[in-house]
Specification:
124 residues, alpha/beta, 36% helix
Length: 124
């Protein structure tokens, strides 16, 4: 981790385009050397259910952009921490194993406890 302030993002709804935008933002911060964490809260966790995808994938792929599953993999490869809300997993009837190896389970209290005094917090 760097000494730079971190970027902390919360995706608060099951909207694939918002998750995609949050991933883009986290990846841009990571490319600039900033620590980036992404928390999928509540219903947003369902976006991680295999096969991962959303209605905007076809248009993005046609435009030469990665689909949602590729974005998640690329973000993880850039050391963006991706956390799935434990309550959200229960709500979606999912287990931690179903979120994929690049995602870890966690809670909102723990996520917020990891937000430093100089960090930024954005909700999508």
């Amino acid at each position: 981790m760097s000494d730079m302030p971190g970027l902390n993002l919360i995706v608060a709804g099951a909207d694939g385009s918002r998750l995609y935008a949050a991933l883009e933002t986290a990846m841009a911060a990571a490319a600039l050397g900033q620590p980036a964490r992404l928390f999928l809260q509540g219903e947003a966790v369902a976006l991680l259910r295999a096969p991962v995808g959303f209605a905007g994938d076809a248009a993005r792929v046609a435009a030469g952009q990665p689909d949602l599953a590729q974005m998640i993999a690329e973000a993880a490869a850039m050391d963006v921490t991706i956390i799935a809300c434990q309550s959200g997993m229960a709500l979606a009837g999912m287990t931690a194993e179903e979120t994929g190896p690049q995602v870890r389970a966690g809670g909102l209290v723990g996520f917020l406890a990891g937000v430093g005094a100089d960090d930024r917090l954005i909700v999508y």
